[in-house]
Write a structure and sequence with these properties.
Number of strands of chain A: 13
Structural class of chain A: alpha/beta
CATH architecture of the largest domain in chain A: 3-Layer(aba) Sandwich
CATH topology of the largest domain in chain A: Rossmann fold
Helix content of chain A: 25-40%
Distance between the termini of chain B: 34 Å
CATH superfamily of the largest domain in chain A: P-loop containing nucleotide triphosphate hydrolases
Oligomer: heterodimer
Number of helices of chain A: 15
CATH architecture of chain B: Orthogonal Bundle
Helix content of chain B: over 70%
Order of helices and strands of chain A: EEEHEEHEHHHHHEHEHEEHHHHEHEEH
CATH superfamily of chain B: MetI-like
CATH class of chain B: Mainly Alpha
Structural class of chain B: mainly alpha
Chain lengths: ~300, ~250
């Protein structure tokens, strides 16, 4: 569990992070969102002590981060940045091996770990181990960046707009990879993003920041359904609020299991926007539904748009 | 022996294909053949009674010249890279401006003036020459080190810090290797500059390839000047081409 306790950072007269308190449960993905300059990246850098706070504490599983040497602390925390920053003079394997080498792992264990991580991020170890960073596309480089951050098996992964510089298709693939990796490894992830759709897709917990203050935090659904004020409402929704609400509600929540419909059933776990897309694509206002237990039902357009 | 044989010609051919090898051979040939070139210089300069420099052997001059430059360059590399590293660290950043000015002054200060000032303090010979070469050769190395370290991408540095490299580890494993080509080009400029500059050491009694040049100038003997100039020129060209090889190997 990561606890930020009244964390404060000032630069001259401006307060970049202002008395920020937030708890991130172990094994969940938390997104820090907000406009640029809201203090979200600063908050992330306070956690691994790339910068030191002017006030407040960071507790990692109960241990005050300030009580550990900064360098040792960072080796225990994965860190991924938007500009990736692979070491251009090292092979992909050596890049991934950075932290295990710093920790003095034996060579055999490092080799096995590098292969395991390349597999995890969807790159073929035989084909990529010996390559140089400049030979890879931006998306592949960031996959390596994620592998490098996970190399020493840290419990906490910090990601600073990790997919912000990638094209939409590549970003989509990496978001899916991250969801999969997090599900398989159970890491606690804190991700900074200005892309609310990315936050909705990835995170169980969204924290909205403005001018260094935490304005609201909660599940994507809570934030979308009950924005704390006009700022949050505007930031998370605007004209697309309705469409985003469809993303965070499942078919199963709205389906009528007493009814039935024709056609290929949609999974109850699918989000409502997928159901709506299916209706539009097939020109119908009713879909058959099936839940994991095999129970059948139906979803009508009226169920989708019901408040 | 039989096993090693096929590799040998290949390595030799590769070496023979390098321009640096040819320039080095030309320098060695000039050193070897010049002592026997009296008839040639008699023909070229018929008005001179003694057209071949014989006060010291050309080989001794070349060895002493190379020794002075090597000694000065060792100090220049250690001090220059060290200074460049220091002023790019958080602790030394305030010194970047003054160091920049000082090294620039060092290079605009004429080496002859350094000699003139050093001789009364430490006497004649090689020592004042080495000091002049150090002062003169520092600027290219310091500025190349600063430029090379400054060109390391900030994303790379940010990643290095974030992953938990210590400041020293970051310097040794990431910054210096990435800056090495630029630093090497500064060292190359400095060494080549000083191969030429070392010739003036002969005005204060150091034994260098400048000795025939200085004596030829003062004694109106152009043949001596030609002999010294040919050797210094070939020495500088050969060294420069070896640096070229080194830079290519590093890239």
């Amino acid at each position: 569990m990561i606890v930020l306790d009244r964390l404060t950072k000032r630069y001259g007269a401006t307060t970049a992070v202002d008395q920020l308190s937030l708890t991130v449960p172990t094994g969940s993905i938390c997104a820090l969102v907000g406009a640029s300059g809201c203090g979200k990246s600063t908050t992330l850098r306070l956690i691994n002590r790339l910068i030191e706070p002017d006030g407040g504490r960071v507790l990692i599983d109960g241990t005050d981060a300030a009580s550990l040497p900064a360098v040792a602390l960072r080796r225990r925390i994965g860190y991924v940045i938007q500009s990736i920053g692979l070491f251009p003079h090292w092979s992909i394997a050596r890049n991934i091996a950075t932290v295990p080498e710093l920790l003095g792992w034996p060579a055999g264990r490092i080799d096995a770990r590098v292969d395991e991580l390349l597999d995890l991020v969807g790159l073929d170890p035989a084909g990529y181990r010996a390559r140089r960073p400049h030979e890879l596309s931006g998306g592949q480089q960031q996959r390596v960046g994620v592998a490098r951050a996970l190399a020493a098996d840290p419990d906490l992964l910090l990601m600073d707009e990790p997919f912000g510089a990638l094209d939409p298709v590549t970003r989509d693939g990496l978001q899916a990879a991250l969801i999969d990796i997090q599900a398989r490894t159970g890491k606690t992830v804190i991700i900074v993003t200005h892309d609310i759709d990315e936050a909705i897709r990835l995170a169980a917990l969204i924290a909205v920041l403005d001018q260094g203050r935490l304005i609201q935090h909660g599940s994507p659904r809570e934030i979308l359904a009950h924005p704390a004020n006009g700022f949050v409402e505007n930031f998370v929704g605007g004209p697309k609020l309705g469409l985003r609400l469809l993303q965070v509600t499942t078919v199963g929540e709205r389906a009528d299991y007493a009814a039935s419909a024709e056609g290929e059933p949609i999974a109850a776990a699918a989000p409502l926007d997928a159901a709506l897309a299916r209706m539009v694509a097939s020109g119908t206002d009713r879909l058959a539904v099936i839940d994991p237990a095999g129970r059948r039902g139906a979803l009508s357009l009226a169920d989708v748009v019901a408040p | 022996m039989n096993v090693a044989r096929p590799a040998m010609p290949g390595a030799l051919i590769r070496l023979a294909a390098k321009p640096a090898m040819w320039a080095s051979l030309a320098f060695a040939a000039a050193l070897t053949l010049l002592p026997y070139s009296a008839p040639l210089f008699h023909a070229l300069f018929p008005e001179l009674a003694r057209p071949l420099y014989t006060r010291a052997s050309f080989l001794d001059l070349a060895l002493s010249h190379a020794g002075l430059v090597a000694l000065a360059s060792l100090v220049v590399v250690a001090a220059g890279v060290g200074t460049g590293v220091f002023v790019t660290r958080p602790a030394g950043r305030d010194f970047a401006g003054p160091v920049d000015t000082l090294t620039a002054v060092g290079q605009t200060f004429p080496p002859t003036a350094v000699l003139a000032l050093a001789v009364p303090a430490i006497g004649y010979g090689g020592a004042p020459t080495v000091i002049a070469l150090i002062v003169y050769g520092l600027l290219p190395v310091v500025s190349a080190t600063i430029a090379g370290l400054g060109a390391v991408p900030s994303a790379t540095l940010q990643a290095a810090d974030g992953l938990g490299l210590s400041p020293g580890g970051r310097l040794a494993k990431v910054e210096l290797p990435l800056a090495a080509p630029v630093i090497l080009s500064g060292v190359r400029t400095s060494v080549i500059l000083n191969i030429g500059t070392a010739t003036i050491g002969s005005t204060v009694g150091a034994l260098t390839l400048g000795s025939p040049i200085i004596e030829g100038l003062s004694g109106s003997n152009p043949a001596y000047v030609v002999q010294g100039a040919i050797l210094v020129g070939l020495f500088a060209v050969a060294t420069d081409l070896w640096f070229d090889e080194l830079e290519r190997a590093l890239a």
